[in-house]
Amino acid sequence: MNEMNNMTTATAATDQTKTDNILEVKGLKQYFKVKTGFFSSLPLKAVDDVSFEIKRGETLGLVGESGCGKTTVGRSLMHLYTPTAGEVYFDGQKIDKSNITELRRNMQMVFQDPYSSLNPRMTVEDIVREPLDVHKLYGSKKERSERVAEMLSLVGISSEQASRYAHEFSGGQRQRIGIARALAIDPRFIVCDESVSALDVSIQAQILNMFKELQAKFHLSYLFIAHDILVVTYMSDRIAVMYLGKLIEMADTMEINNNPVHPYTQALFSAVPIPDPRTARASKRIMLEGDVPSPLRVPSGCAFRTRCPYVTAQCSEATPPLTDRGNGHLVACWNK
Amino acid sequence: MAEKILQVKDLQTSFFTDAGEVRAVNSISFDLEAGKVLGIVGESGSGKSVTAYSILQILSFPGKVIGGQILFHGKDLLTCSEREMQEIRGDKISIIFQDPMTSLNPVYSVGNQIVEAIRLHTDRRGKEARDRAIELLDLVGINDPERRIRQYPHELSGGMRQRVMIAMALACEPDILIADEPTTALDVTIQAQILELINELQRKLNMAVIMITHDLGIIADICDDIIVMYAGSVCERGSTDDIFYDSRHEYTKGLLASIPKREKSEELLTPIAGTPLDLLNMPAGCPFAPRCDACMKICLSERPPERLIGGQHYASCWINDLHELQKQQQELEAE
């Protein structure tokens, strides 16, 4: 562990001189080819020109409805997919194929489904140890075992349980194991992809607390991807909203909560059922007409124009750029 | 007070698995008033869906209702024959499920499926049945119903499919609509549309709705009365305001404290410690006792009885008895 600490402090010292941002994403595009017939195919623009940055120790929340590309953003920046275009910088260093394995030592991911993201043939100890083996950390087997025990106790799994298999644990416990695995190699940045959505509320609260405590303890930065607005609001310093592959609004959490500007953000935030009957009775919903269009046939111009109550002729002609409306509140809308 | 359209008394449903008997629903009682929305809330495995399936007797093997009464307009559904139940299902009591894709038949057009429900329960045939189907699709807010009626489930979006399910459930204007997590598979903006629709139809047709969900936000939004379930038992039941602002069961309190408020906060949440119960090894006392902060000696050995708190508000927690005793003692001392 000592060796590890020295290593991180050494790298951290050199980082200070580089930049405030742990992660910078510039013009990220991720297209997939989707077969529509025997010879024909259409590009599915899962992520289309998305740029953002995450500061050290910050949590950026990424929200949007299913199919908006939020998970793809997380996976592309980890290079689980090779991005179609765009650049991702980790600590000022551009990520590409040659250095991704090395950089993944500092970037980890916690997945949504604790049932399918843990190998059923491996014991919990093996699961948490695997990243240590991959990155060849710690010299001896004994040291690795100690590190595994340390990580498991950190997330509240006792050492007697370490030799069990994943199916012997409940959903919340599995998610803890997934977190222990991600943290084992002492990363500085974690992508949490819907990490609590499979859990019951009482367990969800335990895991959210754990994310917060670990962040304070290890000065972690998170990209927190979720569809639950209440959870994202609670966790994040800033929130980014996606719609059909595009970033449409980004601002400080309380700013976007109290003062959403984009018509989609307004509708999305007002659609969240508030677990308080008096507030719920008093608040008025903004109802959107219709469904999200297919990502294969994204409308021209602003993708939201087919459901937008404020639509004008301009919206179908050109895509609105993301502009700063003061205090880093970015909005992509022609009319608001 | 409105008529009690459905009265569930001491209902017990068990699953007889190879590993042993799982008491999915363990002696629960509640009433549903005509024209009201009743919410059943609880975490996974709390028995909320099994309660609904027991009412309609659509439990799958090895589940079995082993005791209690389900009075629908005063008639015990548990004594009905399968034929009588078929008359009731879809006609008097309808259900919509969580996942509209698996509850619609992929090889029949949606019109065909709605017409089937109409033909089974009414005298309408042919064009008359088809017209009724179009009328129903229109009722649930589907644009261009004449075209949609010929489409297959895969051609519709998730929200649209749920609307079709609702149309089918409403085909015979039931007295009770049971909605089993109807919006869990949908996005929030679509969820808002569907909840609004259920609410609007409930008022228009003056039917009673049982809304089963794990989302306290939905409960707060549309329900008149609430039942909180944990590990097959009812912890607490009462009006929405009783449950949210005057909760008298430690589990309800814990549940409310563990949802994040809509603000960024440095403070940690207050989760309920521990993990959900293994239903195969139920403790002798209160099922929530192993996770309860206020657990007393009696909680571990005896199941708390349901006590009336006031009005329609009932809770099963020994703490209430303790408070009652303390109050009596204070009064005695004062005298």
According to CATH, what is the class of the largest domain in chain A? Answer: Alpha Beta
Mean pLDDT of chain A: 88
Strand content of chain A: 15-25%
| Total helical segments of chain B | 13
Cα-atom Rg of chain B, whole angstroms? 22 Å
The CATH superfamily of the largest domain in chain A is identified as: P-loop containing nucleotide triphosphate hydrolases
Shape of chain A: globular
H/E series of chain A = HEEEHEEHEHHHEHEHEEHHHHEE
CATH architectural type of the largest domain in chain A: 3-Layer(aba) Sandwich
- Total beta-strand segments of chain B: 12
Helical stretch tally of chain A: 12
Largest sheet, strands/sense/barrel of chain B: 8 strands, mixed
- Please report the distance between the alpha carbons of the first and last residues of chain B: 39 Å
- The SS-based structural class of chain B is alpha/beta
Globally, the shape of chain B reads globular
Number of domains of chain A: 2
Strand order of the largest sheet of chain B: 6-7-8-3-9-10-12-11
Terminal Cα span of chain A = 53 Å
